[in-house]
Amino acid sequence: MSESFSNCAFCDVLSNGPHRLILQDDQGFFLLDAYPVSQGHGLVVSNRHVSSFFELTKLERKSLLGLLESAKRWLDRQYAPDAYNIGINDGAIAGQTIPHVHIHLIPRYEGDVFDPRGGVRWTIPEKANYWD
After folding, report:
1. How many Å apart are CA 117 and CA 120, to the nearest integer?
2. One of 49, 100, 102, 104 is an active-site residue; which one?
3. Which of 116, 111, 127, 130 is nearest to 39 (CA)?
4. pLDDT digits (tens, 9 = 90+) for 33-74
5. 19 is catalytic
6. Cα–Cα distance between 130 and 132 in angstroms, integer?
7. 44 CB contacts (<8 Å, ≥6 apart)?
8. What is the pTM of this model?
9. Which InterPro entries match (predicted)?
10. N or C: which end of the chain has fewer CB within 10 A?
């Protein structure tokens, strides 16, 4: 990592050993979420400690999106999900609790929720349902 910040769960991952890592390249890594919302829920994380996706360099963004594709293929083989949600909480007001950029890759399975329509629109529940 180019910088290390104390008390950052993601900055500590590489220094705590590679056993938690599933995939890795020069700019980032993929690991399973410690508090998954579905089987196989994982995170693509930048090596460099920056809080916003918009602070990443073009090289970092390209790398993280490549890791996202590789992670999807890995999850397809391991868990065979039916679909995916991909999300970034960018800023505290958007729900970001760890100020280190990371992309959630959430496998979805048929029947995991009663009605999956709207997906990430449910971030603001009172505005999510536009079809009724």
Report:
1. 9
2. 102
3. 111
4. 999 999 999 999 999 999 999 999 999 999 999 999 999 999
5. no
6. 6
7. 28, 29, 30, 64, 67, 68, 71, 102, 103, 105
8. 0.91
9. AP-4-A_phosphorylase, Histidine_triad_CS, HIT-like, HIT-like_sf
10. C
pLDDT in the model for residue 2 = 42
Q: Pick the closest to residue 9 from 40, 42, 45 (CA basis).
A: 45
In DSSP terms, 103 is beta-bridged to: 44
Domain residues of the chain, as ranges?
11-128
Identify the CA nearest to 3 among candidates 100, 90, 96.
Answer: 100
Burial degree of 59 (CB within 10 A; 0-12, 13-18, 19+): exposed
Indicate the pLDDT class of residue 109, thresholds 50, 70 and 90. Answer: very high
For domain 11-128, the question of CATH label 3.20.20.10 is answered with no
CA–CA distance, 90 with 69 (Å, rounded to integer): 20
